[in-house]
Design brief:
mainly alpha; 23 helices; 0% strand
C-alpha cells in the first residue's frame, strides 16, 4: 500500500475532526464566549499573564506539547507494527486529545487561569487537589529528566546541531524585545532566524570545526577520565549542566522575552519540518508494509501497553498542564481556545503520524528492522535516532542532501524538546509555589528558590548512575513510567472536565467516553507494571525507582477517582 495514501487519508480525517467536531464542541459543549474577559487581560502582569496573538500562542502551545514525545512514543510503538500505532494516533487525536487539550484550556480560562491541579479543589475537594498537585509534581519532574536526557543524547549523536540551537536563543530575545517594546511584526524576523539557523546547521554538517563534539573533546567514547567517567558520560554530564543553567533563566524570564518568540520560531520550524516530510513522502511515495515479526512481542503485549507508549500524539496529560498552566494565561479571546487547543492536538497527531511513516518506510528500504527492534528495550533506546534517519530519507525526496537533512531534522527535534523542557520547569515552579502557599513554606513561594528546587531535583533525577547505561540512566529508565503517569493525568483531567460540564447541565458523553477508555487502559497497564514488572514478583528484577514512583502515582490516582465518584453520586442523588 502506498504510504502517501495512508498519510493522505489520515490528514483528511484530521481536517474533518477540526472543521466539524471541534466546532460542535466549541458551540454546544464548551460554549465559548468572544466577550468573556480572559485571565490574560484580567491579571495582566507582564510576566506570566500576557495576552498573545492566537498564531503566536499556537506556536507556544504547539511546540510546548510537541517536544520529542510524539516522536519517541510512536517510534517505540512501531515495535508492534504500524497499523495499531496509526489507528491509535488518528482516533486518539480526534476524539481524545483534541477534546482534552481544548477542554482543559477552557476550564482554566473560566477559572482565572488556574491549573487543573488547583481546580481539583473546586470540583472534587481540597484533599483531591493536594493529591493531584503531587501527581503533577512527579510528572513534570519526570518530564524534565526525560527531555534533558533526550536533548543531551541528541547533542552527542548530532554535534552539528549545537551551534544552530544556541544561536536561536539571543535571536529569539531580540525578536521578543522588538515585538514587546516597539510592537513590531514577528513574522519576518522569525523567518530570518530560521534561515540563519538552517544555514548554520547545513554548514556545520560539512565543516567539522563548527561541530561541538564534546565526546571527542573529552578523549573519545572509551577514554576513562580521573573521575571514572568515559568521554560519553563526561559529555552527557556537561550538556546536562548547560541545559539546567539555561532552563533556570528561561523559565524565570517574562514569557514575552524568550518563551513566546522562540516558540513562534519553533512553530514555523514544525510547520516547515512537517511540510518537508509530507512533501518528501508524496514525491518518493514508498510502500508501507508490515515489518518482520519480532519473536518476543508476545512477552510485551501491545494491549494495553500501546495506549501508554503513545501518549503525546494521541492523548497526553502533560498537554492539560500546558493548556491550563501557561497557555490559558496568554489567551487573548476565549474563542481562540478552539484554534489553539484542538488545532494544537491535530498538529501533534500529524507529527506522530509522519514519525510512524518515516520509520516504517525507512526499514522497508534498509531491511534493518530486526537489527534495531529485536526487543522492546532496543526499540526504546534507538527509536529517536532511527526517526532522524528515516525523516532524513523522506527529505531526500526534495533533493536535500542526507547529511544536511539529518542535521536539520535533529535541530527541529531538539528545539521542540527544549521548549517542552523550559515550559515544564516553569510549570514545576508554579506547582511548588502553590504547595508552598498551602503548607506555609515561604521559600517555595519565591521565584528563584522554587526554580532552583525544580532545576536541582530534575538534574539529580536525570543523572542517576544506576542502570545499564551508566551516568544518565535516570532519564532512560523513567520513560515507561512517564507514559503511564501521563495518561493517568489525562484521564483525571477529563474527569474534572466531565464534573464541570455536569454541574453546568451540559452533555458529558464527549468527555466521559475518552475518560473511561484512557483510565481503564492506563490503570490496567500500570497495575501490571507496578505489581509484576517493577516489584520483582515476576521475572523482572526489582526496580526501586520505578516501583516507588509508580506505586505513589497509582495510589494517589485511585484515591482521587474514588473521591470524585463519591462526590458525583452524592450530587446526582440530591
Amino acid at each position: 500500500m502506498p504510504a502517501s495514501l495512508v498519510a493522505a487519508l489520515s490528514l483528511i480525517l484530521f481536517f474533518i475532526g477540526y472543521r466539524y467536531y471541534s466546532k460542535y464542541l466549541a458551540e454546544k459543549i464548551y460554549q465559548l464566549n468572544p466577550d468573556f474577559m480572559t485571565p490574560a487581560h484580567e491579571f495582566n502582569d507582564g510576566r506570566d499573564y500576557v495576552p498573545a496573538n492566537k498564531f503566536v500562542l499556537l506556536g507556544h502551545h504547539f511546540t510546548s506539547i510537541a517536544g520529542a514525545a510524539p516522536i519517541v512514543g510512536p517510534a517505540i510503538a512501531v515495535y508492534w507494527g504500524w497499523v495499531p500505532a496509526m489507528l491509535w494516533v488518528v482516533l486518539g487525536t480526534i476524539f481524545a486529545a483534541g477534546v482534552h487539550d481544548f477542554g482543559t484550556m477552557v476550564l482554566s480560562v473560566r477559572n482565572k487561569g488556574q491549573s487543573v491541579g488547583t481546580l481539583a479543589d473546586k470540583l472534587v475537594g481540597r484533599r483531591a487537589r493536594l493529591l493531584f498537585l503531587f501527581i503533577i509534581l512527579i510528572l513534570v519532574l519526570m518530564v524534565n529528566a526525560v527531555f534533558a536526557w533526550v536533548i543531551s543524547n541528541l547533542f552527542i549523536s548530532f554535534p552539528a546541531t549545537v551551534l544552530s540551537i544556541f544561536i536561536q536563543i539571543p535571536l529569539a530575545i531580540w525578536i521578543g524585545f522588538r515585538a514587546y517594546r516597539k510592537s513590531g511584526n514577528m513574522l519576518i524576523p522569525s523567518i530570518i532566524v530560521l534561515v540563519v539557523m538552517y544555514f548554520t546547521a547545513i554548514i556545520a554538517s560539512y565543516v567539522p570545526v563548527l561541530q561541538i563534539d564534546l565526546v571527542q573533546y573529552f578523549g573519545g567514547e572509551e577514554t576513562v577520565s580521573l573521575l571514572g567517567l568515559t568521554g560519553v558520560e563526561l559529555a552527557f554530564l556537561s550538556w546536562i549542566i548547560v541545559l539546567m543553567v539555561y532552563v533556570y533563566f528561561a523559565s524565570t524570564l517574562p514569557v514575552w522575552m524568550l518563551l513566546q518568540p522562540r516558540d513562534l520560531i519553533n512553530a514555523y520550524q514544525l510547520i516547515l519540518g512537517l511540510a518537508i516530510l509530507y512533501l518528501g513522502l508524496f514525491v518518493i511515495s514508498p510502500e508501507i508494509t508490515a515489518p518482520p515479526t519480532n519473536t518476543d512481542t508476545g512477552d510485551v503485549s501491545w494491549f494495553p501497553l500501546l495506549f501508554i507508549t503513545i501518549a503525546c500524539g494521541a492523548i497526553s496529560g502533560f498537554h492539560g498542564l500546558v493548556s491550563s498552566g501557561t497557555t490559558a494565561k496568554q489567551l487573548d479571546k476565549e474563542t481562540d481556545a478552539r484554534f489553539v487547543g484542538y488545532l494544537g492536538a491535530i498538529g501533534e497527531g500529524s507529527l506522530a503520524l509522519i514519525t510512524i511513516v518515516a520509520i516504517v518506510t525507512y526499514f522497508n528500504t534498509t531491511g534493518e528492522f530486526l537489527e534495531n527492534y529485536h526487543s522492546f528495550e532496543a526499540a526504546g533506546a534507538t527509536g529517536l535516532n532511527i526517526f532522524v534517519e528515516g525523516a532524513a530519507h523522506l527529505a531526500t525526496g526534495l533533493m536535500i542532501p542526507p547529511e544536511a537533512a539529518q542535521t536539520i531534522i535533529a535541530v527541529i527535534v531538539i528545539s521542540f524538546a527544549a521548549t517542552t523542557l523550559d515550559t515544564s520547569v516553569r510549570l514545576m515552579r508554579y506547582i511548588l509555589n502553590e504547595l508552598g502557599k498551602e503548607y506555609n513554606v515561604k521559600p517555595l513561594t519565591q521565584l528563584h528558590t522554587s526554580t532552583m528546587v525544580a532545576v536541582g531535583t530534575s538534574a539529580a533525577l536525570v543523572l542517576l548512575p544506576e542502570g545499564p547505561r551508566g551516568l544518565g540512566s535516570g532519564g532512560y529508565l523513567l520513560w515507561p513510567l512517564f507514559g503511564t503517569s501521563n495518561q493517568l493525568l489525562a484521564g483525571i483531567s477529563l474527569l474534572l472536565i466531565t464534573i464541570w460540564l455536569k454541574r453546568l447541565g451540559r452533555p458529558i458523553i464527549y468527555t466521559l467516553v475518552p475518560m473511561i477508555f484512557v483510565l481503564f487502559m492506563t490503570i490496567w497497564a500500570m497495575v501490571e507494571q507496578v505489581v509484576f514488572d517493577w516489584s520483582g514478583v515476576g521475572e523482572s528484577d526489582f526496580n526501586l525507582l520505578l516501583f516507588s514512583f509508580g506505586a505513589i502515582i497509582l495510589g494517589f490516582s485511585l484515591w482521587i477517582m474514588l473521591e470524585a465518584f463519591t462526590l458525583f453520586r452524592r450530587k446526582s442523588s440530591e
